[in-house]
Structures are given as structure tokens and as C-alpha cells.
Design a protein that fits this description.
CATH topology of the largest domain: Hypothetical protein af1432
CATH superfamily of the largest domain: Hypothetical protein af1432
Shape: globular
Structural class: mainly alpha
Order of helices and strands: HHHHHHHHHHHH
Number of domains: 2
Strand content: under 5%
Radius of gyration: 24 Å
CATH class of the largest domain: Mainly Alpha
Number of helices: 12
Largest sheet: none
Number of strands: 0
Length: 259
Amino acid sequence: MAKLDQKRTTLFAALASAAVVGIAWATDALRRDKAQRQIHRTLVDLLLNALTADDPVTARHSRRVADLSYALAESCGMDSRELSTLRVAALLHDMGKIDDRFFYIIHSRKPLSPEQRNEIKTHPHTSAHILEPMEPLHPGIQGIVSSHHECWDGSGYPRGLDHEGIPLAARIIAVADAFDAMTQPRSYKEPLSIEEALDKLSEGTGKQFDPALVRQVENPEVLSRWIEVARRGLEDERHHLAHPSPAEAVHEVAGAESE
């Protein structure tokens, strides 16, 4: 009996030790995972800051597009890994515009020349190239970013992809990008109302946009989140138009000089 009790005591001690080691390992793994996620968020923030250092308008636009895209993607049933990749892609989809040659094109108030249009069409490919080191962390991010100006009917760029040949995340970003552009004011234009913007999305159904995604925007849960993002953005943009930062004032001068 004494030997049995000793074996039990030894077994319990071993199990207790294993539990302590397991808890310590799990705690350490959790700590390392948290640290890795923090490093990843910092990297994304650094890239976004590099893109928008002299362009706070684009910074705000990118964050809204990410919020809009996430809400729509979540309603489409994307899993957490896909959602993470989509959000990073939405934040950095215009990374290629960091090139100085795009500055006056982006902020011009005049219609673009054919040469400028051809030039601006290179930015999705450039964005994808810049984000190549992130591909192991976010598989497919290059394809998403390079395709966010493709159209459902094949009339987009840079490769003329169509229908499901365009990554779902890119199709989502395209709808969100257009909605934000329409619903936010700029110094040279007034925004469309949310209702007008939704009508424009409907007009683009089957041409520029995936019909299923445009219908999904009208889902009450998605629409309420989109309205919230648009209204919050409207307040921010109105405020910054009334009280421009030095960088935004530079954009105003650049826009006036291009006229």
C-alpha cells in the first residue's frame, strides 16, 4: 500500500510539474504571439505613415476603406486570417502612389491626360511589388492589391481580369474605395449623399462591381456600419477642410497650380 501511495504521489507530482511547464509554455507562446502581432501592427503603421506622411487625406481615406471593406468581408463569411489579410491590403492598397511622380496627378483638379492615365494605372503593380515581403504573413496580398482596379466586366486594369478571376478581397476593396470617394468632400467637390452613392454603386453593378457585393452592402447590418463610417468621415473631412494641416495646405497649392 505504501508503495502504491508513493507511486500515486510521484504520478501526481509529475502531472503537476507537467501542468506547470505546460502553463509556462502556453504563457510564453501567448506572450511571443502577442509580441509578433504588435510588431506586425507596427510594420503596417510604418508603411501607412510612409505612404501618407505628406498626404493626410489619403491616410484618412485608407483607414475608412479598411473599415468599410472589413464590414463587408465579415458579412461575406471570411475567416479571421482572410479578414486580417484583407484589412492590411485595404490599408495599403495605394502603396504604389508613394512615388513622387504621382503627386500632381493625384491632386490635380484638371482631367487627366492620356499619358497621366497610363501613368496612374501602374500604381497597383507597384503597390504589389512593394508589399512582396508581406506575402508570407498574408498569402495572396499581392494579388489583392494588384487587382483592386479590375472591373467585374473585364474593363479594369492592369490585367483586364473579370468576374471570379478577380480576388474576392480586391472586389470588396473596389466597392468600398468607390463608396468612400463618393461620400467624402474635397476642396474641389461636394460629396454625394449616402443614398446617391448607393445608387451609383447600383449603376455600376455588373460593370465595375460584383453584383453580389453591391447587394450585400444593402444588408441592414452592413449598411448601418457603412453609414457610420461615412458620417464619421464626413465630420473629419469637413473639419480638416476648415482647419487644414500644413501638408493639406500644400495639396491645395498643388491643386491650384495644376489648373
